[in-house]
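Predict structure. Input: Dimethylargininase, 253 residues.
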Amino acid sequence: MFKNAIVKKPGKSYVQGLTTSNLGKPDYTIALKQHENYIQALARCGVDVITIPESEEFPDSTFVEDTAVLTPRFAVISNPGAGSRNGEITAMDSYIKGYYEDIYYIKAPGTLDGGDVLQIENHFYIGISERTNENGANQLKDILEVADYKVTIIPLKQFFHLKTGIAYLGNNQIVVAGEFIDHPDFKQYEQIIVPPEEEYCANCIRVNDYVIIPKGFEKTRENIQNAGYEIIELEMTEFQKQDGGLSCLSLRF
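Output follows.
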């Protein structure tokens, strides 16, 4: 059960942030409304939401997931792979210290985005991507293994981040898309498969009694509902434009 979630309000500079999509520039007013709806959804799931004020100097900093990896016992402050985002970890570090005594840090030349880290019970999967390199992944692996977690490192072939294409719902069930369908490292889990035209919906989040999904992906919504989960749907258009998904917008612990 999650008790807390950290989010960060997007600043006006958000519309100038990094993106690989061709979906156009975000509408800031709509983005603010969608972010507020996201906060309300988290509260509905029963967590206390800590909202960090916007940082105009860091356009991408609303995607707080990339700045840290949180476990029940300790936190790891990451070293984001995009140079323009590295300064985001300083502010996040001060907030994390309010909740954790034991904090570790990913050091250069290692890079690590939290979006490349998936926890399934006591097993962590770490993706090697454009933003997470082998050095950073191995640093996190060493930290986690000392704490008796199992760790698997997975080089990505297609997705931007590991969690772009996979989510864990609990009950040994995963939502998977693209390169992770029938991936040998995930064969032991029951798969809810996302069709190619709905790949964005693979980045969903289980928060206590609910699964939060982006709105507009009917096949995946039906498949998750049929698996027995109660769903909250949210418009995510203005975050999709900046390569962001539901998991990116919060740190849940």
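The longest strand covers residues 123-128.
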